[in-house]
Amino acid sequence: MLELRLVQGSLLKKVLESIKDLVNYANFDCSATGFSLQVMDSSHVALVALLLRSEGFDHYRCDRNISMGVNLNIMAKMLKCAGNDDDDIMTLKADDGSDTVTFMFERDQHMIADFEMKLMDIDSQHVGIPEVDYHAVVRMPSSKFARICKDFSSIGDTGIVISVTNEGVRFSTRGDFGTLNLQPEEATIIEMNEPVSLKFALRYMNSFTKATPLSSTVTLSLFSGLPVVVEYKIAEMGYIRFYLAPKIEEVDDEAKP
């Protein structure tokens, strides 16, 4: 038996909205310790990792480990139809051996919506993510990062270069009409072991920023030649992390001051 209860039911809706355009199908893994997901996008360029710890739920019961395969777009539509009030209480239930999961929403102690969704059999493998002492870690307002990615899209979609030096963090991109460099004052380098400059696909970064409503801050962890980690904390209960491989072959030209 699986039964999860969230007083802030809109939280799961925001999670789905942040990943549904990146991946279509995924397994939600439930255990005694929490509710998680790990899935790669269809091009195998980006990886999404979600963790919602059991203690963060208002009620959490998971009698045995269970993996629920879902169509994320359908799930997002169903959650959206259930109501958009942040005060809605959501309860998720799945019986042992059942091929469906039930979502119930209540407001002011009155049931406002409930629906049952059929589960899917989805083959997936978890990717081992090694612990890395990153060259640089940048923490900044998530709204500022989203604005930078959006503004850069108006210049072109050649990519976004993130450079961290002793002077701070700089974002740059090059389009048909020139180059744009931004060095946000609000950004704080939590740690820099050595300078680093990497280029990433801008369309993926813009997709990651859909998680902005989940957290007021975003953390960017960079290591030369390895995927960047774009992390949004989810209240006090967990996180959503996006991993994106760099466009190594193009960094040198784009990263020049």
UniProtKB/TrEMBL annotation:
<feature type="domain" description="Proliferating cell nuclear antigen PCNA N-terminal">
    <location>
        <begin position="1"/>
        <end position="125"/>
    </location>
</feature>
<dbReference type="InterPro" id="IPR022659">
    <property type="entry name" value="Pr_cel_nuc_antig_CS"/>
</dbReference>
<dbReference type="GO" id="GO:0019985">
    <property type="term" value="P:translesion synthesis"/>
</dbReference>
<dbReference type="GO" id="GO:0030337">
    <property type="term" value="F:DNA polymerase processivity factor activity"/>
</dbReference>
<protein>
    <recommendedName>
        <fullName>DNA sliding clamp PCNA</fullName>
    </recommendedName>
</protein>
<dbReference type="InterPro" id="IPR046938">
    <property type="entry name" value="DNA_clamp_sf"/>
</dbReference>
<dbReference type="GO" id="GO:0006298">
    <property type="term" value="P:mismatch repair"/>
</dbReference>
<dbReference type="Pfam" id="PF02747">
    <property type="entry name" value="PCNA_C"/>
</dbReference>
<keyword id="KW-0238">DNA-binding</keyword>
<dbReference type="InterPro" id="IPR000730">
    <property type="entry name" value="Pr_cel_nuc_antig"/>
</dbReference>
<dbReference type="InterPro" id="IPR022648">
    <property type="entry name" value="Pr_cel_nuc_antig_N"/>
</dbReference>
<dbReference type="GO" id="GO:0006275">
    <property type="term" value="P:regulation of DNA replication"/>
</dbReference>
<dbReference type="Pfam" id="PF00705">
    <property type="entry name" value="PCNA_N"/>
</dbReference>
<dbReference type="GO" id="GO:0006272">
    <property type="term" value="P:leading strand elongation"/>
</dbReference>
<keyword id="KW-0235">DNA replication</keyword>
<feature type="domain" description="Proliferating cell nuclear antigen PCNA C-terminal">
    <location>
        <begin position="128"/>
        <end position="247"/>
    </location>
</feature>
<dbReference type="GO" id="GO:0003677">
    <property type="term" value="F:DNA binding"/>
</dbReference>
<dbReference type="InterPro" id="IPR022649">
    <property type="entry name" value="Pr_cel_nuc_antig_C"/>
</dbReference>
<dbReference type="GO" id="GO:0043626">
    <property type="term" value="C:PCNA complex"/>
</dbReference>
<comment type="function">
    <text>This protein is an auxiliary protein of DNA polymerase delta and is involved in the control of eukaryotic DNA replication by increasing the polymerase's processivity during elongation of the leading strand.</text>
</comment>
<keyword id="KW-0539">Nucleus</keyword>
<comment type="similarity">
    <text>Belongs to the PCNA family.</text>
</comment>
